[in-house]
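Appendix B, record 7
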Amino acid sequence: AIAANGDPVVADAQRRAVEDAVRLADLWLDPATEFPSTGAGARAWSRSQWLEATMPAWQEIITPIAEQVQTSMTTMMPSTEDLAGGLPEELKAMLPADMPVDLTAMLGPMMGMVKAMGANMFAMQAGQGLAALAGEVLGAGDVGLPLTSDGVPTLLPENVAAFGSGLEIEPGEIALYLALREVAHQRLFTHVAWLGPTVRDAV
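Structure tokens (predicted):
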């Protein structure tokens, strides 16, 4: 989905612009906050680089949800033992009286397939959602969660340009505003060690 929407490689000029914006953001934030600079430089990512680099954090967040979906599917569907006692009366009433096929024997494997399909559908939806998000996020800290752990302020130049398109504001000013937000995010999650795990646990 990312490739279909276009994901150009970050150009050197875009990378330098991000580095300049982050340097200036650090200078502005130094007297305004007690959290010091992470000293980690700056980084410019393409959409696919953002998705690949943040995937470990997303897996940590999404895995418990996927497991809960699987558990819910399991508890909602009748078990093989339930089917062994015969079909529910509601289902029997819907079938012809002379039905030659033993549906009870057929439904057991089908229930397993339905559960697996539910888990696969959730995984596909999560993947599509993350691909769509990669086309909209502006930096590594854009969603309010600590998706990276190295403290490097990161912007996505293509998304930043799309965000600023149509606004009557200089692109450099937009980049500086987003860099300030990103740098502040990285400083906060780097220097307050308990905050990141607490936010992830809350999610």
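Remarks on this record: The two ends are 26 Å apart (CA to CA). The chain has a mean pLDDT of 83.
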